[in-house]
Write a structure and sequence with these properties.
The chain has nine helices and eight strands. By secondary structure, it is an alpha/beta fold. It has a five-stranded parallel sheet with strand order 2-6-1-7-8, sandwiched between helices. The protein has a three-stranded antiparallel sheet with strand order 3-4-5, covered by helices on one side. It is globular. Bound molecules: cytidine-5'-monophosphate. The site of cytidine-5'-monophosphate has 15 residues, from helix 2, helix 4 and helix 8.
Length: 220
């Protein structure tokens, strides 16, 4: 099996670029952020504070998270319910970042991710794929963009979905999430030593996909 690990901060366009690149390569695209979001949604729905590590860990045995692939791509199931849309709400982003700092949550989602890579050629995107989940991935890319550019893109995305977005607030949330993801003790966001840096600040969507494919094809 061939694995491509793509890590990077929130809103760098990782998911859309990775999804498109996976399609071009005929690989299964695994968006691991969606798994953390599903766990976070469970906590929010059950009145559990996502930053309360003990309470989150205690709730985990009742949680099931699964992936299903349909013609339009990856769907995430939380206790059997398709929550692919619900996990995109902004309040779930912060909750996901909180939950993802809980070691038991990372452990809980680990085998689901490695299992996918054992069965399929995958292009997996997340924060710790090249460093922790798939340390032997054949290609590792750290995909990033400036915080301002990421905030602009996230606002545009939300607006397209009809959700009102405030640029300053989005930028603040992105910076907070970067801070939290980079400084947590378990599996912090950082480029794997053997990763290739891809900065998309100056690239449009097509350009980012092309660049990513170029990096992958050089290593296949
Ligand atoms: O990628 P996305 O923004 O959907 O991820 C939501 C949150 O899940 C991130 O802020 C990060 O804290 C966490 N995450 C993680 N490890 C991953 C993927 C996501 O910690 N592999």
């Amino acid at each position: 099996m061939f694995s491509i690990a793509i890590d990077g901060p929130a809103g760098a366009g990782k998911s859309s670029v990775a999804k498109e690149a996976a399609k071009a390569l005929g690989f299964v695209y695994v968006d691991t952020g969606a798994l953390y979001r599903a766990v976070a949604l469970y906590m929010l729905r059950h009145g559990i504070t996502p930053s309360d590590a003990e309470a989150v860990e205690a709730a985990l045995p009742a949680v099931t998270v699964d992936l299903r692939y349909e013609p339009d791509g990856q769907h995430v199931l939380l206790c059997g319910e398709d929550v692919s849309d619900a996990i995109r709400m902004p309040e779930v982003s912060t909750a996901a970042s909180d939950c993802s700092a809980v070691p038991a949550v990372r452990k809980f989602l680990f085998s689901l991710q490695t299992g996918m890579a054992e069965r399929y050629d995958v292009l997996m995107d997340g924060r710790d794929i090249g460093t922790v989940v798939l340390p032997n991935a054949q290609v590792k890319i750290f995909l990033t963009a400036s915080a301002e550019e990421r905030a602009r893109r996230r606002c545009r995305q939300l607006k397209e979905k009809g959700v009102e977005a405030d640029y300053e607030k989005t930028l603040r949330e992105i910076r907070e999430r970067d801070e939290q993801d980079m400084n947590r003790e378990t599996a912090p966001l950082k480029p794997a030593e053997d990763s290739v840096l891809l900065d998309t600040s100056e690239l449009d969507f097509r350009g980012s996909v092309e660049k990513l494919l170029e990096i992958v094809r050089e290593r296949m």
